[in-house]
Design a protein that fits this description.
Keywords: Membrane, Transmembrane, Transmembrane helix. The chain has six helices and no strands. Helix 1 runs antiparallel to helix 6, helix 3 packs antiparallel against helix 5 and helix 5 packs antiparallel against helix 6. The two termini are 15 Å apart. It is elongated and about 60 Å long. It is an all-alpha fold. It is 73% helix and 0% strand. It has a domain of 123 residues.
């Protein structure tokens, strides 16, 4: 179990690092062209510009907000399903609260949460990816290499691929868990695999 968790963490840390390295590279590149500005000032200016782009395009801002809410909802549903599967609620939640529907040790509740997570996650991924591509199109227009807001296309492409990789991996985890649960590919939540005691 711990090996799986470490693998998943590594899988997501790699693209996150690529994105951060890309941002640092852009800031360093811009500082060479604008030596009178510090890296912090450049980073702040670019962040403010990106926020302004969303403020000027309300539809993109709305879509971004919706996608984030759906992603958070998906994550919470997955967390609750895992809690049911591994009996975590009986370790972390007071006994008098475990009778609640979403805390019960029930395969049907677990499966319902996973199906909802799959639907919400799919919508979130599609909406987020659409608004992100539109955002990249907007910030690429009218900027030249001497512009403080300019980002090399190679870095944008790597960051785009990193975000896509994370979305795909996230949805594969959601779909995989859902399919295994619905097809009885994992043990019933009534007799779950319990996590090692040293984690509690």
């Amino acid at each position: 179990m711990l090996i799986i968790l470490l693998f998943l963490i590594t899988v997501f840390l790699m693209p996150i690092r690529i994105i951060k390295v890309g941002n640092k590279s852009v800031i360093s590149l811009q500082q060479e062209k604008h030596p009178h500005m510090s890296k912090k000032q450049i980073d702040h200016s670019r962040s403010s510009y990106f926020k302004t782009v969303y403020m000027q395009h309300r539809l993109l801002k709305t879509l971004r907000t919706i996608s984030i809410v759906l992603l958070v909802t998906t994550t919470l549903l997955i967390a609750c399903a895992l809690g049911i599967q591994f009996g975590l609620f009986f370790k972390l939640v007071p006994v008098n609260l475990t009778h609640l529907w979403f805390l019960s040790q029930s395969d049907s509740v677990r499966n319902s949460m996973l199906i909802c997570a799959s639907v919400a996650g799919t919508l979130a991924a599609i909406i987020w990816w659409y608004q992100y591509n539109q955002f990249l199109t907007l910030i690429s227009q009218g900027n030249n290499k001497d512009d403080l807001l300019w980002t090399p296309s190679s870095i944008l492409q790597r960051q785009r691929e990193s975000y896509l990789f994370m979305l795909i991996m996230f949805m594969l985890i959601v779909y995989g868990f859902t399919i295994l649960a619905v097809t009885n590919g994992i043990p019933s939540s009534v007799t779950p695999y319990y996590l090692p005691q040293f984690l509690f």
